[in-house]
Here is the input.
Amino acid sequence: MNLKRPFSPVLLALLTLGTVASAQPKPPTLSNDNGAPVGDVKSSQTAGENGPVLLQDWNLVQRLARFDRERIPERVVHARGTGAFGTFEAVSDEHALTRAKLFAKPGVKTPVAVRFSSVIHPGGSPESLRDPRGFAVKFYTPEGNYDLVGNNLPVFFIRDAIQFPDMVHSLKPSPATNRQDPNRVFAFMAQNPQSTNMLTHLYSDLGTPAGYRFMDGNGVHAFVWVNDKGQRTYVRYRWKSLQGVKNLSASEASATGGKDFQYMTTDLYGAIGRHELPKWDLYVQTIAEADLDKFAFNPLDATKLWPEDKLPLHKIGTMTLERMPKNYFEEVEQIAFSPGVMVPGIEASEDRLLQGRLFSYADTQRYRLGANYLDIAVNRPRVAVANYSQDGAFSAKGLSDVNFSGVGSPFQTNATYKYSTRPLAGGTQQDVIKKQGNFAQAGEVYRAMTAEGREHLVSNLAGDLGQVTNKDVKATMAAHFYKADAAYGRAVAKAVGLDEAEVARRAATIAE
Ligand code: HEM
Here is the structure.
């Protein structure tokens, strides 16, 4: 054999291919959950050609058992949602009002996780259904996580957390028929005139946004900012969409939902995929502690707006969403937001609705995700957690001998981080708030709408209220809208076939 003979072109090609093939890393061998290599995932182990499947096929049993446990309890509300990740950048210096580091000076950047959602309808339900929309933001700050868990609508149905289970039960499908039923919804709302403002927002086209990018967000409650001198200021938050607020009419919503029932999620993936990064500016309104009682309404009442002409919005930062989740379950289904998750410089106000929320979220998350839910990657603070919480399912704290606060303990408290203090008055009580003013703001909202907006509101309301068979409930609802604005009440009465004079008489018997 003449070794000097050059390789033939065919042989050369084959050799080159061989070299390329051997340069490609071999994919790792598929393994089972205990890490052992698996030989076959298409055939179970059987006793001969026609014999039964063997229980000893550990890989088969493991695959089925894992599949059987893929679901966790869905959120009791806000089950349907979409997440995204990005950055919040402060544009102002708020240190005179709060010592929270994320708002301390312009240019401070904080990574965020966001989850948009609908409220009542279950996971996988069409995104075109009328509902308030959740707007929850988790800030991963250098002093721990801060969650701002808001909605697109600026007010709420009720003002006391004790009513939340009743409210949600009335809005969810009937336990008997599993159908959502306006008879049940309005049987609750008719006894709760404070819902008039929220219903006026919800039945406007704000109840069917054109996409998550096109919604504003609202903290809804008053929160308290505390500065390094311990001084307290009441604040309310507002996210303003830089894409503009865009909504669908009822007929547009049903057409859009008919074509793509997940159009809001599709839109967000599309925009971020095209690098059209959605942005929101964050604003606050503030009330000095001494001024809290100076308004016709109670600023701690979540059924009320803080009027922007009296309490101007002040811009504090901008949020940009930059990426969609890499794994939906891990980063969105398992994300846990709570209004109780705060950082030094931000505290809860006395708002009775907020106070109940402070308990409810972490409680449901311990049930939904387990005791160690804050160790899940998306929930974990970006700073080391230094405490003695331990054990529970999936514990990985790695604590050693000293697991308590005492002499020589590894972690020590720092008194500068104590909660702020506030004087209290009066005794314990169970009573409604004094300044209820259930209708005035709903009337202002109605009058500020365009003629087309009012028409949509009335026809959207009539679509549901018109199905109510209890005449008393129907007339009471129309009377609430009449109290907000006589023209509004008359239009609703007419649209649902009620006698307008009778509605006006009923309205006269209802307290403001
Ligand atoms: C007392 C009144 C309320 C109670 C008891 C309550 C309770 C809950 C519960 C139990 C969840 C499920 C949490 C989870 O499984 O992770 C939830 C989710 C949520 N709630 Fe509320 N809620 C109340 C009022 C509100 C209000 C007023 C807002 C808006 C300002 C709001 C916004 C949200 C949002 C955005 C979510 C979804 C968070 C996420 O995306 O995971 N809720 N709520």
